[in-house]
Amino acid sequence: MRDRLIERLANLSISRPGQVLVVALIITIIAAILSGNLGMTMRWSDMLPQHDRRTIEFDRIIKEFYGASSIVVVVQGEEIRIKEFAETLAPRVLGLISVPGNDKI
Hints:
2 domains; rod-shaped
């Protein structure tokens, strides 16, 4: 089947080279026009499921705490233990923030 298709395309390009060239040119123009809508982003959240609650929360964190560098900590478990962990971690992280006169980093 594949050999027959290739043979037919070869015969078509030999017998009608002008028409094959025009069709190829039209396809190229259509592809170029459609490629104008393509875009590329470099955000991690664009690779995550859009309607997942964790993705939504991640986007919210990035919008609120953007900067040259970010730290995102994801914790799973019981709510009480998560809050205890956050209360223990927050002062440590805040102690790492570089402020004038504080060169801990």
